[in-house]
């Protein structure tokens, strides 16, 4: 899941630049294909196993993407400078729970398909790789956004 979010960051940034955040994110097909090849290499899959894994992985990521897209834009507790009501916050929390359940259901649905190609230890490695890539991308996003915030502050100070 983290990897999906990370791979969509560049798409969402360009989306925001073009339409101020009002456009729908497209499924990052090329990035996912590259990731599937990378994961197949890291898991030491060859031949038909690698092809099956890549096909399953792309479909898995497409469904995760759709589940995340359905819950896109749910604010935490503030929205454009105004506080949300308690009912709105409660509704948003329930939407995030539903999204997390949907993602867990997708992961559970794809587990047998991954098991056709991967051993349990390879599946654990796959989950670890997916999480570590997502963590790195999240850290990079935080670093860049912090740098952008600092740049904005220095511009304001110079005025």
Can you walk through the features of this model?
There is one protein chain. The chain has 159 residues and is mainly α. It has five helices and two strands, in the order αααββαα. It has helices at 2-19, 29-42, 48-70, 86-115, 120-158, and strands spanning 78-79, 82-83. The protein has a two-stranded antiparallel ribbon. β1 (78-79) and β2 (82-83) form a beta hairpin. It is extended. The model is unreliable at 1-22 (pLDDT under 50).
Number of strands: 2
| Helix-strand sequence | HHHEEHH
The strand order across the widest sheet is 1-2
For the biggest sheet, the summary is: 2 strands, antiparallel
Give a concise summary.
It contains 5 helices and 2 strands, in the order αααββαα.
